[in-house]
């Protein structure tokens, strides 16, 4: 008798479980892929009428979110809605702009509003559509106006930023402090872009204590400008100017001028999702060194050029970006540099994803390396740039997620446990 009761209870639990899944599946199943940050907990609270799944292959509405920086320093978010299964062929793209002065809360409110607008066409094709209510809020002072008046911009699209940063860290045997400040100005339109920045930083370090302590400091001044003009949907032309002083790199002063031209294989209007650009730069560089270099130079004027290919793709299967470049000095072709860099975040199958990033450079163009013996302090503290014919970094990870595909519930309890606050 006991066995029959257990069997009946198991059958009841199984049928109840299946009824829950069937009930859940009546909702739209959404996979939200945020290539830029999204407050997903907030989104789930504000849009509870869909099921959020952890596997894009189990969704019937796939949403890809990308962001690009605007001329004013804000962000333009683009949401691509792709229908699957019963919604195959029902696609849409919506966008909104987060102003540079907006708060995080204002941004997530805009995100929720845009997501709701994009989901309307899918809800209208389900039984949930009968519960859909649409209201329209008139903007204050806009009632009765047929067209929106163009706002005057007293700054004529110029945007300025100023910053000041400080840092202290240490103990009995080590002390470091750093200070940096900077200023930037930019003006960006559809046909023209110019950005200028001025930066200064100083780092002071102490290793050990008393008479045996080893101390050094590094100062860095940098000013640069990038200006570019549009030459159509695929071509751009402009140039770079940079002025530099660096204790670490042995530059009393360095001046570089690089006119450049770029071809984008995709229209620039699609750069949010597809960008494949080929750029060529050429121009002079003047170097005034703090110490005599390993090539017995204290100053020199050299010409160089560089060709680079940059790729950035944001798709349903993930994100892929990379760059390859080659350049050399004209006075000596052996003084060259070949670099490769890449980043990938790929969803291979259901909950299985792979991410990788890396950089590798074959560098034979270090004209600035100071002559002299390399001390143990130089090696351990990296207080100055040392000769090296290569450099690299790499990282990778793999993730597999399985179990319930539904994750609608938000429970923030104990999320703040163990946090430290400074006043």
TrEMBL record:
Q: Which domain of life is it from?
A: Bacteria
> Where in the sequence is the signal peptide annotated?
1-19
Species assigned in the record = Gillisia hiemivivida
Tell whether Signal is among the UniProt keywords.
yes
Q: Sorted alphabetically, which keywords does the UniProt record give? A: Signal
Q: What is the protein name stated in its UniProt record?
A: DUF481 domain-containing protein
